Amino acid sequence: MKLLVVDDDADLRAILAFALRGAGYFVVEARDGAGALAAAAAERPDLVVLDLNLPDADGLDLVSRLRGGDPASRPILVLSVRAAEEDVVRALDLGADDYLTKPFSPRTLLARVRAVLRRAGIERPEPLEAGALSVDLERRLATVAGAPPVRLTPLELRLLQYLVARARETVPAERLLVHVWGGRGEGDRQLLKQLVHRLRLKIEPDPASPRYLVTDAGEGYRFEPDGGQGA
Description:
Elements: E1 2-6, H1 10-22, E2 26-30, H2 33-43, E3 47-51, H3 59-67, E4 76-80, H4 85-94, E5 98-101, H5 106-119, E6 128-130, E7 133-136, E8 141-144, E9 150-151, H6 154-165, E10 171-172, H7 173-181, H8 189-203, E11 213-216, E12 220-223
Parallel strand pairs: 1-2, 1-3, 3-4, 4-5
Antiparallel strand pairs: 6-7, 7-8, 8-9, 10-12, 11-12
Helix pairs in contact: 2-3, 6-7, 6-8
């Protein structure tokens, strides 16, 4: 299930994205209104987590634009330091599905996200399908080419989701480190290499000659949905 997180505070955005990824969601990030509209059009998220205070747009106006005049479109969870009743009422009237006042805990955010998705009828994530790979995101079970399912750790799932979303594209190690471990430098290349190795042991027929999770030397990693040959 894909979520779009929009916040101009890079540190807070990283914390929100990290908490949501840890709960099994695929997260796309945007730091301003223009980025939010572009990401919403390109990524088609199932839910938008939107801060109202953005440098280039009125967050309340952005609620209407993201809705596109369709009350049945993607749900929106608004985040704001504005606690006044008139701000809450206006955001809800414009189409927001919920309103969460800062500061809040990650547990509260996750509970609100689940509630909004449940009300929208899309709480249960659809299986992740890519070529020979199928992943039950809720149970963290991966099946490749009809082999018995294997259970993934949260970090393995986060890495695999990101690579699958960019199938056949070489993703630099630095970008994977930020996505898997968050934006606070908690990962390094050796940890990433070990994580890739553990994931290969679970999904590759021959981990010594990976076909799905491929290394592009000096560049990064890519996922080949149909088991293309790699190094």
